């Protein structure tokens, strides 16, 4: 009863359990993952495969927990971002039984982060152009804050008003 895709991978690297929640996220049914153990690796975006392989190797060798964000490519070609966590599972005697994994669709969050980054970059570019325009004016130009302090002044304003630069 979760939107997250839950699964258990045994020590032999095959799926022991795969929740039905994999279908909305990956476009593949649980039975496909159970029948084709390498399917998860095959749907990972090629640019993220090395990071995923490093993650899997580290978790398998150290028998420790891990987290990773990566993209998958659905059968319809749609690319989705996945937030993945896994936890090592041991029996009562301490023998490894594999790991439990959980994957969540984080595409909306990643898209919002990309939009914020693009907006921030556009703002910085706009500020740089504004500053360049002000600094290269032949006439004195300055910008004052609500307390009537200069926050930006070009060299000509400095010569006229004695406004220190910087």
Short structural description:
The protein is α+β, with helices and mostly antiparallel strands and 166 residues long. It has 6 helices and 7 strands, in the order ββααααβββαββα.
Explain what this protein looks like in three dimensions:
The chain is an alpha+beta fold. Helix content is 40%, strand content 28%. The chain contains six helices and seven strands. It has helices spanning 22-26, 30-35, 39-43, 49-62, 107-135, 155-161; strands spanning 5-9, 15-18, 66-73, 79-90, 96-105, 142-144, 150-153. It has a five-stranded antiparallel beta sheet, with helices on both faces. A two-stranded antiparallel sheet has the order 6-7. A hairpin with a 5-residue loop joins strand 1 and strand 2 (15-18). It is elongated. The mean pLDDT is 89.
List the defining traits of the structure above.
alpha+beta, elongated, two-stranded antiparallel ribbon, 166 residues, 40% helix, 6 helices
